Structure formats: structure tokens, C-alpha cells
Amino acid sequence: MDKRPAETGRMRDTSHDGFRNKLEAFLLTRGRPIWSFINEQRWLRGIVNRLIVNNAVLKAPTRPLPLSTMSGYASWASLTDRTWFSRYLPPKTMEGLPALQALAPLYVTKPGGPRLSQRSTLLFPSFAQWFTDGFLMTDGADRRRTSTNHQIDLSQVYGLNDKVQHALRLQSETAGRKGRLITEILDGEEWAPRLFDSEGNRDPRFGDVPDPLKLPIDLPPGRRASIFAFGGERANATIFTAAINTMFIREHNRLCQVIETANPAWDDERVFQTARNVNIVQLIKVVVEEYINHISPYWFKLLGDPTPSYKARWNRGNWIPVEFNLLYRWHSLIPETILWNGREKPMADMRFDNELLLIEGLEITLGAASGSSAWSIGLFNTAAMLRDVELASIQQGRDNQLASYNDYREVMQYPRISRFEQISGDPDVVETLKAIYGNVDKLEFFVGLFAEDLPERSAVPPLIGRMVALDAFSHALTNPLLSPYVYNEKTFTVEGMSSITQTACLSDIASRNLPGGGTGLHITMDNPAYDSVA
Amino acid sequence: MDKRPAETGRMRDTSHDGFRNKLEAFLLTRGRPIWSFINEQRWLRGIVNRLIVNNAVLKAPTRPLPLSTMSGYASWASLTDRTWFSRYLPPKTMEGLPALQALAPLYVTKPGGPRLSQRSTLLFPSFAQWFTDGFLMTDGADRRRTSTNHQIDLSQVYGLNDKVQHALRLQSETAGRKGRLITEILDGEEWAPRLFDSEGNRDPRFGDVPDPLKLPIDLPPGRRASIFAFGGERANATIFTAAINTMFIREHNRLCQVIETANPAWDDERVFQTARNVNIVQLIKVVVEEYINHISPYWFKLLGDPTPSYKARWNRGNWIPVEFNLLYRWHSLIPETILWNGREKPMADMRFDNELLLIEGLEITLGAASGSSAWSIGLFNTAAMLRDVELASIQQGRDNQLASYNDYREVMQYPRISRFEQISGDPDVVETLKAIYGNVDKLEFFVGLFAEDLPERSAVPPLIGRMVALDAFSHALTNPLLSPYVYNEKTFTVEGMSSITQTACLSDIASRNLPGGGTGLHITMDNPAYDSVA
């Protein structure tokens, strides 16, 4: 394992990385030709995939976890009431924590300017944001609670409940229109309907659709009128999340057309539900085969194959852990400027504003996300507009009495560290953390997660990577749609299964839903310059 | 396998029982000395228990089942909305079904009088009724829907939700009263509070407590005043279900006392929740170690050990199947007369009437259930008061478009039958079914279930036994309280775990909660005369 973070070139003390962790990293990140061979062997890659998936999930205690954020002890209530987050470690009183403001400098870029990610385009954090907004919801009134369905169910598109879903559906038994979501066509492109009219009043058809979260009250009427009626309350957050949501809405209606044509006798409801079944599974395939493979520093290409979960002891009903909710705050990946169709633009202008998307089209918007660099995840690298959000995340960890970074290393099978030098080779990180916390055992979970050096080829630091992988597999692969008696042509139709088979990445879905088929457009989370030099 | 039903002595055609089924029955119901030896070997019985439990559960497709009663196809809605029952087989249009009234003669006792069970006391169906009323609920307005929590959670005692629970709790931080359910002491015995006053008005403290289901409007004021404020809407149904519920309420308060004494610093909530944790697991132990062992014709004594579920591929979130809801209508076990403290009494008088329970005490009531014979389960053996209920159950099967008896044999790994003589050796059963249905493939699920002959030592017929066993294990043993990281002293306390260890049957719980400790009382589901002659 390379001990030098790409950014600083300095050495990290790897003595507490753990032998097994080092060995696994060595085996999985070296020997590219061997892995390329394995990736091509249909039979072998299935076995290796199962081994890697099981190894990833069993790095932590499996569900059901004994505790939720409801209380410090297990009870029938805490084991069944899913309006609370589950948690890996019991609440802990962390004595003598620094004042929140003392941590603010950790989220200011260094005088030399931001570090750009060599690995990821802006599509990566945009997809991460849009995807996780489908199941990571924090109750604004009590940050220990959640309104999540604890599942990958495309609630960004379909809403968290039936009321929202019905408001967004075109309920019609007319041939050629069955199962569709309400959309409108502008210049040959299909869009979700707008939530507000040109005067800023809410469209009464969408009374049950949630208010976009954190929508600025003083948004100019033009930007306000560009906000879509989306199922997810955060799907309008940026022009890029709105673009991805638009793509999945178009895909839903495309699937309806395919399914209805093959099954003309089916009613509106069945066409809708079957298209949704397919759409959800296609998302899961993208999550594993594009997104997780982008995050993973391994040369092995992980497969969107649910069978490793079928007999696994980790196949238990999903329940979002509060730690998972926090570790996904990848604010430092968001750049301050982006490249839009050849022009530099401030990312701040891309929030709650779909005007450019509507004018220039989905293709150019997805192209901008794929053509702009993300920033590199880590301390001293947060865009100015997001610094307060980082501090709010730390506060959320405190509200939930999370244990220390070292405690979480331990439960995730990393040895506890004894020196700050074991987290990072960056002297700025080490010295600042030393000055703030003094003792490594005092270091908070959220701060520690992002203080770690990025290993070579990794899109995220090691502890985050481990926790994301275990949750991604144990969450995504245990989806009821992928279960043994459900994952078949009866549930999806022959045409739906075929569409699933033909879906491995966002560009597959885009190519089916862009007016020109996305010809020549490279929709990608991987920085194209990176892979070739690695 | 004995082909002659105990009652008729005639031969059944066993040619379609299936080789593996016959072999399993042979191995498990013969060789009593071998099984007695195995039952005594701590190490060996654990292994055998795991084999038998796995074999029992894997007789049917495992969860998640693809369909619920919501629709004939799988959708995200149908896979997640648990207000519908799950189902083993898709809806089927059964052509040419007989009129409901044509089936009425099947539920009239023969001229020779009812057949008494040689195997079971009245405590067996009383416990079955009380136990299943905790999770088998049918929506009165739509018999395809349910309000169940799909779990063994002692909702009969604690209610289906927090509102009911809070109404029934004595919320108190006073030492010596923490965690308790509201009770009152009469002549040294502890009882749940009464729901109505002597004038028949509801006690306003219990506004959130559900109305007792099917409570006769014209109930005399004295009987009405004897109805308890119970969490379960059916727990007052008979004096015996009320007695069992009372016993579990007393046990809750006893556990609170034990837990509070050991943990004086704990608050009301924690004492309550921990007592509930223990009480639920004790019920599960009784279910497996007393109730299932009573049902099972095997000589092996099944263990209330959750570990066979820990790595099992059938360990998935429970979801009550509609077939399970129906097969549990064991009305024919209920006798028309019972033996109460030496006197014969009509069972009809025991409905919605707790006066005798309050006057003569819990011990005499449990004694009456243990000292009265149940009737034998089967056709031509239903008490007059329950005949309409049998027909309503058939209608419920039709409302849910259940497939045929033969279809269910097949999915439960019994060969389909080709002649009515393969169901029963009783010519009355065979001839009547022939006359009504003509073709065995037309035979309905509910009717067929109860038409089967009772094998020797069985409390229920084979197909019911198989379906009860698979659901009992896959439901009870996957309870979150029994899961690997929860089933420990942290969740239950040392004292609670010790109480769990000391609980294997109802008489264990009774002995801790009867004023005289139940000395000399034999609380049992097994007819004492039966086991010695078998």
C-alpha cells in the first residue's frame, strides 16, 4: 500500500493499519493483469465477487443491530420503530470536546487553493448526493430521527409514500399512456412538471408533493419557476441532482412504453408498478457496477449480482445506521467552480436553479458534470458555501452521542491508532488535530473520517470506503426485488429483464433517454485522465 | 405410519403421502427409546434440533414471498406494504365452487356425538387462540388486509401500538412501582383493571384501549363489568384466554419487581421495556417447548433455541401469510361442555364472561382448562356455536382467491392426491366430499385441511402440522429479541435471562404468579391419560 497521500507526498505511519487490512489492500490493489484476467472469466468472477462482497459486509456486526438512536438499551420499541436510526455503537459521553467553532479551520481550503480530485468527476458526488437523498433523511426537528423507508426505492422519483406518488402519476387507462409519470415535452425533451408557476405559486395539482428542502425564500421568480415537482424533497438541490432525477423519470416512462406494448391488456397500475420494479433494480445495478466500482480501489470489477446475499447471514431487513447517515456528508468533493459547456461557472449558481438545464438540455448538463473535476475529499478542502454544513454535521454526531473515531475504527476491524501521524501524512492535518484534540482517543468520528489520507486509486478514505461498501452491499443486494422468488421475469417482464441486463452505468440509461442518444457524450464518474496513467 | 385414524379404525389410502414424507414420519415417530436417549444428550440434541427445524422450515418457499393479497403480481408496493397478508400461492379462480350452505353439514357433529381429543386438553386450543390473536388479525372491512405487527410481541398484553400501551401502564418513577402495568388486587390476586364500570360505561382512562371484538351488545351488566382492559382486542374472548392474558400481565409486573430491585437507578421506561423483552422471549420459549412439542407427533423434544436461525437462509423479516391466518381456525377443538372444578358447564357460557375467573381465581380457571378435554380436530365435529364461523372462514378463503387444497399440498411438498380416499379413511368424510366437490382438484384449501385424518400422537392433521411448524419456527426464532447481538444479558439483565432459562411451559409461569404457587395443580396441554398409553 502506498503510504504517501497523492497530494502531499509525505509518509503516513502505517503501523496501526492492521496486518489483515494491509494484506487485503495489497492483494486487491496490485496485480492488475491477474485481476483483468479474472474480470473476464464469467465463472471465476462470480466466485471472487461473492468472496469480496462477503468479506466487505462482515467487517462490521450484522443486522439487526441491538441499538437505535431511540435509547441506550434494546427494547421492543427500539428494535421495531424505524423512525429512529440504527447505530453500530452505543451512545458515549465524550468529555471535553472542542467548541464547534474551533473546528471551523479544518474546513477552509489551504492558501495554495483547493486540491482537485484526480480520480472523480463532478458526476460522482452529484450521483452520491442524489442517490443517498433517496434513503438518508434526517428529521429537522430531532436529528436522531428519520423519515426514511430504509430502502433503495427511488423515492427521489416516486415519493416516500402513495400520496406523493399518486400526485405525480398520470393516471390513465388510455392505451399508450398507461403507468406514466406526469411530464411535459419542451423542444423534444421530456421534463417533470414544474412545482411553481411563473409567479411563484405552487401548482395545486402537487399539493401532496413535499416542499423542496432548504429552498431559499428569496429565490428569484425565474429560478423558482424552474423547480420541478419531484418525489424527493432534495432532488432539486442542484442542477445535477435534478438532471439525474430527470433521467430516471424519462427512463420510467420509456419502460412503461416498452412494458405496455408487450402487455397491452395490463392496466395503468400494473404498468406503473412493473416499470418502477425495473427502474429500481437498474439503479441498484448502477450503484454496484459503476458507483461502487468507482469508489473501490480494487482492480476487480464488482458485479450487481444479488446471489451472494441469498444464503448470507447478513441478509436481514435494512435499517439505516446514524453513522452511515453522517459519513456520507461528502461536502469537500463539491467544487467551487465547474466547467459548463466550455465556460467556467460558480457551483453556487447551480443550486435550486434548473433554468440552464431546461434551456441547454439534459445532455449538456450531464456532460458538464462529467467534464468538471470534483475536489478531493478531505480536510482543508471544503467549498466556502458548505463550511457551515460541515460544522452542522459535527453537531449532529454530538446530538447522537457518537463514540470516537478510534472506537469506530475498532468496530470496523481497524486497529485503534495511538498517534495522529497514523491518520495522515499531511503535517497540517496532524498538527491541527493535535492542537484541537490533544489525544487521538478524543478525536470525533466525523472529523476523523475525513482526516484520513486517500489511498491510491481511492475515491474516499479507507474507513469511509469500508463503511460505504458494507452498507452498499448489505443494503442494495438485500432489496426485496432482488430476492430469490422475486428477481425474475414474472416481476419485471421479459422486456424489463432485458433492460436490466443492458444497464450497468448511468450512460446506459442516458443513451436511452437523450434526444440524440447521447452520441459522443462521455457520461462518467471516472476522471478519464486518471485510469490510463494508474 | 399408522393408516387408521384413531376415531374410525378404517384404512386411508396412503399411496400419495410421498416417500420422503413417510420416511420422515417413520423415523421421527418410531424408536421412542432412541429419541429419549437423544433428548438427554445436550450436544447431540442441539444438532438434531437444528436439522429438524431446518427441515421443517424448508418445506415451503422462504420469505420474501413474491406475492401479497394486494395484487396478483409483485410490485414495490406489494413487497413493502404490510397491511396486506403475504401468500404462498397466487390468486386462482376456482370455477364451480359449491354454495357455502352446501358445506354446512361438514361442521355438524355426527349422531353418535362429538369425538373428544385423546391428546389435548382445553388448554391447548385456549392457548392457541390467545397466542395467535397476538398476530393474526383480519381487517373486518376488507378480509384481505390486516392490522398485525407480523411479530410475536405480546400485543395481547401490551397493545398493538404505543397509545394502547401507555393507557395500560402505571407510569411511575416511584421506587417499587416502576415499569408496572396497571392492575388491582382482589383477595390477594392481581388482575388487569376493568374496562367498564358496573353500569356498563367505559372507564375513561382506557379510551385508547381497543373495543373487545365481537362483544355482544346485549351482554348483562355483570358480565360486562367483568371484561378487562386488555391490550388485545380478542383477549377477553373466553374466560380461558383472559386467564392466560392475566398470567402474562402478572408475570410482567413480577419481572418489573425483579429487574427494578437489581437496577434501582433505572427509570420507569427502562424497567418496563426490559420486562417486556423478557416476557416476549418467555412466551416464545413456551411456544416452542410446550406448544409445538404438543402439536408435534415426534418423540424428539424441540428446543427454544434461536441459533438454528442465525445463519439460515430462511431468516427473513416475518410477514403473516393469508393461508396461515386461515389454517389456524381450530374451531373444532373447542368443546361444547367443559369440566369446571368438578362441575360440567357449557363452554358457551365462558365467552366474554370473567366473573367466574374473578370469583374462583386464576388457579381454578387454568385448572379447568387443563382438566377438560378438547374435541378432536376435523370435520363433523364443530360445536354448534361455532358452525357459522367455519363457513365464514371458507368465505374468507374465497375472498382471497386461495388455490385448491391439492395446490397447497404441492407447494408444501406433499404429492397431489387423486382420490378422496387419500385424505381420510372415514367414509363419511370421503362420501360427503365426493358428493360436494366431485373432483379432488376442486377441493378448497380450508375444507381439505380439516378433512385429513389425524395421525397417531398428532394434535393436528399433517398439512396443518407442516404449515404450523414452518411458520412457528421461521416466525418465532427470527424474533429480533433472539438475534445474535440482542439475545444477551445486556438486553434482558442477568435476572431476566435467568427467568427465561427457567421458563419452558405455562406451568412455569403460572407457578410464579399464583397465590399458592400452583401447588398440586397440573397445568398442561397434554391429556395426562394419553402419553402414558402411547
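Confidence is low (pLDDT under 50) at residues 1-6 of chain A.
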